[in-house]
Design brief:
alpha/beta; inorganic pyrophosphatase (n-terminal core); Diaminopimelate Epimerase, Chain A, domain 1; 6-stranded parallel beta sheet; 6-stranded mixed beta sheet; 20% strand; globular
C-alpha cells in the first residue's frame, strides 16, 4: 500500500483530525491546511492548529481562517503539512508525546527529509513537487473527494506562492498542469494574483522605503536588508508587511542571494531568496539551523547575526 493509499484509508475513518501548520505559515502551508479542512469536514471534525497567526494576505483571499494555538490530545489523527522538521511546528514536545501514546501522525511535505519522517505513521513526500499543495491535491484525488472551487482556490494559492507566481525554477510542466486543473475546477487565480498586488499598503510603503534605503551588498554577492523592531514601529506596520521584500531584493542585478534579517524576541529571523541557478539556499539554511527550498529558505540566528552582518564562527 502506498503512503497516499494508507493516508486515504486513515482519513476516511477518522472522526476528528488536527491539521498542523508550521510556525509563521506561508501560502503553501495555509493553502494545504485549508483545503484539507474544507475537503474532510464533510465527514470529520477538522481543526487547523498553528502557533502563529495567519497573515492577513491569506485571509483576504480565502476568507476567515479559524486556527487554534494549542494542540489538543484527543484527536484521532494528526496531519502535519509543509514541514519536515519537528521544531518548526511549534509543538515539538506535544507531538513527541502524542507519538509515544501511539497517536496516528500523517506528514505531507515536499522538502528534504527531516526528523518528522521518523515520527510519522505515514509520510507522503515528493521533493520534485513545487508545493505541498500538489501532494494534497493528489491525496484528495486518491480519496475521490470532489474538488470544489472552495477547495481548488487554497490549493492554487499554495502552488502560486511556493513558485513565486510561477517564476521560480521549481515550476515544472507537472506544476503547471496541476495549476491548470485547479483553475478548471474553479480555483480563483485572478483573485490570488490581485490579492498580492493589492498588498502594498501605505504602512508597507513607508517600511519598504526605509529598509530599501539602507540595503547593502557584500563581496559574496549577498544583498542584505535589516528590519529592526524600531522600523516597524516608526512605519506603523507589522511583520506581515515584510512579505515579498526578499523576492524583490532577489531581483537586484548585482546580487546572487537576497537576505532579509528580521529582529524578533528570540534573535534574528533570516529570509533567503535567490534566482542564481547554482545556489542551493535550502542547504545553506540547514547549516544555519533552518530549512527551505533551493531558491527560498529561512533560519533563526540568536548569536551570529549582528548589525545586518553574518559573522563567521
Amino acid at each position: 500500500m502506498s503512503p497516499a493509499e494508507s493516508a486515504s484509508t486513515i482519513l476516511r475513518t477518522a472522526a476528528s483530525i488536527c491539521v498542523i501548520v508550521h510556525h509563521r505559515p506561508d501560502g503553501d502551508a495555509i493553502g494545504s491546511a485549508v483545503a484539507l479542512q474544507r475537503a474532510l469536514s464533510k465527514h470529520s471534525q477538522v481543526e487547523i492548529i498553528s502557533s502563529s497567526t495567519v497573515p492577513s494576505v491569506f485571509t483576504s483571499i480565502l476568507g476567515p481562517i479559524e486556527t487554534r494555538p494549542l494542540l489538543p490530545t484527543t484527536a484521532d489523527v494528526y496531519v502535519i503539512v509543509d514541514c519536515a522538521e519537528l521544531h518548526r511546528t511549534g509543538f515539538s514536545k506535544q507531538i513527541e508525546r502524542l507519538r509515544k501514546n501511539k497517536k496516528t501522525l500523517i506528514v505531507i511535505d515536499h522538502h528534504n527529509s527531516g526528523d518528522l519522517e521518523r515520527l510519522a505513521t505515514t509520510h507522503i513526500s515528493n521533493r520534485s513537487a513545487a508545493a505541498t499543495s500538489e501532494l494534497v491535491f493528489s491525496l484528495l484525488t486518491e480519496m475521490r473527494i470532489p474538488i470544489t472551487p472552495d477547495i481548488a482556490t487554497p490549493l492554487l494559492l499554495g502552488v502560486y506562492t511556493d513558485t513565486g507566481g510561477f517564476h521560480h525554477q521549481t515550476t515544472s510542466a507537472a506544476t503547471l498542469k496541476t495549476a491548470s486543473q485547479l483553475v478548471r475546477l474553479g480555483g480563483e487565480l485572478n483573485k490570488i494574483s490581485q490579492g498580492f498586488c493589492r498588498e502594498l499598503s501605505r504602512a508597507k510603503q513607508r517600511l519598504w522605503g526605509r529598509i530599501l534605503s539602507e540595503i547593502s551588498i557584500n563581496k559574496f554577492g549577498i544583498v542584505v536588508a535589516q528590519v529592526k523592531s524600531s522600523h516597524l514601529k516608526e512605519a506603523e506596520s507589522t511583520v506581515d508587511d515584510i512579505a515579498g521584500l526578499a523576492n524583490l531584493l532577489a531581483l537586484t542585478l548585482e546580487a546572487k542571494v537576497a537576505l532579509v534579517l528580521v529582529e524578533t524576541e528570540n534573535g534574528w529571523r533570516g529570509i533567503l531568496r535567490s534566482r542564481h541557478p547554482a545556489i542551493n539556499l535550502g542547504r545553506l539554511a540547514r547549516l544555519l539551523g533552518g530549512s527551505g527550498h533551493k531558491k527560498a529558505a529561512g533560519f533563526l540566528a540568536t548569536n551570529d547575526v549582528f548589525s545586518g552582518k553574518i559573522k563567521r564562527s
